[in-house]
Each structure stands twice: as structure tokens, then as C-alpha cells.
Amino acid sequence: MAGLSCAPFRALTWRYSKPAFSCTEMISAKTLIHKSQLAQRRFIEKDNEEGPVCFQLAGNNPFDIAEAVKRVTDYGADLIDLNCGCPVKKIRQKGAGSKLLSQASMLYQLITAMKQNTTVPVSIKIRVEGKSGDIFNKEIANVVRDAGADFLVVHGRHWTEHYETACHYPDIQFFVEELNIPVIGNGDVACVTTLRKMLATGCAGIMLSRAGVGQPWLIAQLIAEMQNQSYIKPSLTEIGLLFIEHTQKLSHLLSNEKFAVLQARKFAKYYGRDLKNKKAFVDAINICSTFDELIHISHVFFCNS
């Protein structure tokens, strides 16, 4: 699950929904090896409230990946994932992320390095061919199988496609039918209708990403609705308090209030998605500079709506 300022948001998600795994944001293997643990803390911290945590790594050097895997295993990882789907230019230029989809030999070496240096399950997160004209689904399936990955997470879009492009469910189903390991479907799951559509591919489970940011209760809500049970979402006041708590925990984690408030600008729009005056709320957060200001703004918008 993607969540900005990972550790605090993962903890909130676990408290409300208790997912099978909560995920860290992608972290470079080189960063993990060469930067101080304090600088990485918001990515690698495992909150006492959390259950199983998956650490997602990025890199294209088997030696770096091997060392990073050892470290996150020591940090308490319950699952380790290799990002082979990131479409960001600077990541692809380094030969990492979705670039690995065209480098089958290197991908095999990376998965092998992961498997040889940890006792926890290893997963790979990929993108798909879609309608791009690229042909790699079959080859990637073979590499994942031959290298012995334990899971596969499939984001049903090509790396060139933005979120406006609908998820390619047939590509996800291809991997489900091609492999004998659990395949986790990812893409467009935001409500019970889209959840059922994803599960119709035969996937063993789903990864919920953007839709969960600012809605740590969403997994519990979807499970209840799949069982035809009603679910009462938190009130706007309660959501505002969650936004404050997320920022506060990040500030405490890093002992840096200013950084936490700046980060809050990135996830304010997600917590404020149900506000009638969402834009005004986001604009106000974007110019606030202290945590006290953030608390005041949140009370004004969430408690008086």
C-alpha cells in the first residue's frame, strides 16, 4: 500500500483495517546502504501497532540488493518486494523500476540475490504489456518462476500509462494462469465494485494503493461490504483528527515539526476528499508553517463542515 510518510500511515491503516501486509514506500537499495538510519527512519520504522510489514526495494545491482535485503530483514521485514514497475524517469535511467521489465537476465540475478540473503518471502511488483506494443509478460513470468519468487504483484498498467488509463485485467489474469505462486492484483481498486472486478481475474489478493491514502479504514470497509455487511465510515471530524494524528506521529518520528508539516501538504487532499470546500482546505494547508496552524485549520474545516 502506497502511503506518503509511510510509518505513521501504515500504523493508522493497521489500527483500522489490519491488512495482511502493510507496505513501505519504495526505498533505493543504495540509499538504504549508504545513508544513516535516521535519514531513512520514516521508511524503515515499524510501529508497535502494526502487524506484518513489507519493505519495497529499488535497484539494479545484485550486490546492493543483497546487502539491502539483509538490512531490512534485520529491521523486521515480514516480506521483501522488488520494485519493477516504477515509471519515473530518474529511476528508469538508473536501470531500476520498470526498466527491469526489459532486462530479464538482470531481473533473474536480482531475485536470486534476494532469495539467497533472507529467510522471509520475496515478491516482485511489475507492470504489464497492456496495449503498448511491448512484449514481455511471458518472459517476466518465466523469470519470476525460474528465480523462485514467492509472490508476484501485478499493477495492471504499462509503465507509460497514467492512472486515467483503465487497468488491463486480462494481463493480470495471464499471470494468475501462468504461475503457481500467489498473484496479487493492483490497480483501480477503490470500492466494492472494483474489488470484485479485480478478484474476477482469479488473483489471490489485492494491493490497495492510492485509494487507501487518507482512508485507513478502507480495507475494513471493503471486507464488510464484500460480506454484505454495513460499514459506518468515520465522521468528517474523526477524519480531521486522523489527519492531525498522521502529521503529529511523523513529527515525533523524525523530531522535525517543519518537515512533517511540509509533508502534510502532500496528503491533505486525500484526507480532505469528502470536504465540500476541499480546495480551500488544501490551499490553507499549503501555506501553513507550524503544527499548531495545521491543527487550527483542520478544526475549522473538518469540525464545521
Shape, please? globular
The largest sheet is: 8 strands, parallel
Order of helices and strands: HEEHHEHEHHEHEHEHEHHHHH
The fraction of residues assigned to DSSP E strands is: 5-15%
Tally the helices. 14
> Percent range for helical residues?
40-55%
The N- to C-terminal Cα distance equals: 29 Å
Structural class: alpha/beta
* Computed CA radius of gyration, to the nearest angstrom: 19 Å
**Low-confidence spans:** none
What do the pLDDT scores average to?
93
The number of E-state strands comes to: 8
Q: Which features would summarize this protein structure in a list?
A:
alpha/beta; 305 residues; globular
Explain the overall architecture:
With 305 residues, the protein is α/β, with parallel strands linked by helices. 49% of the residues lie in helices and 11% in strands. The chain has 14 helices and 8 strands. It has helices at 6-17, 29-34, 41-44, 62-74, 89-93, 104-116, 137-147, 169-178, 192-199, 218-226, 236-254, 257-271, 278-287, 291-303; strands at 22-23, 27-28, 53-58, 79-84, 122-126, 151-155, 183-186, 205-207. Strands 1, 2, 3, 4, 5, 6, 7 and 8 form an 8-stranded parallel β-sheet that branches. Helix 1 crosses helix 11 (236-254). It is globular. The model has no long low-confidence stretch (mean pLDDT 93).
